[in-house]
From TrEMBL:
Domain of life: Bacteria
Record's compositionally biased regions (Polar residues): 1-18
Name of the featured protein: Uncharacterized protein
Stretch list, region Disordered: 1-29
């Protein structure tokens, strides 16, 4: 173990202080910016960074399912959320709808 600690110390000593400091600053900026851009979801005790679902994301996913021949399933999903068309789905259900669509295809 002493040899391992000695190797780490010599490796750290070989690096200039500026590069270590710069890497820490870049890492801190990356963490701050990614936290600001992501929405946190806590489910069953786990933390998952996730983007908020947009209408365009739903359109893209559902268009792929239509091309795969799953129109009936998509219409059933839309009706489940009280809509006949995608723009009629309330935004609060976008996340659930995308999750359900992903299960289909």
């Amino acid at each position: 173990m002493t040899n391992h600690v000695h190797n780490l110390e010599s490796a750290n000593a070989a690096q200039p202080a500026n590069s270590v400091r710069e890497r820490r600053q870049v890492a801190a900026k990356t963490v701050k910016s990614s936290k600001a851009e992501q929405v946190c979801s806590v489910q069953a005790g786990s933390w998952e960074p996730r983007q908020s679902v947009t209408l365009e994301m739903l359109r893209t996913k559902l268009a792929g399912l239509v091309q795969a021949g799953q129109q009936c399933e998509i219409r059933a999903l839309l009706r489940h959320y009280g809509a006949e068309r995608l723009p009629d789905v309330p935004t609060k259900y976008f996340d659930e709808l995308l999750h359900a669509a992903e299960k289909l295809g």
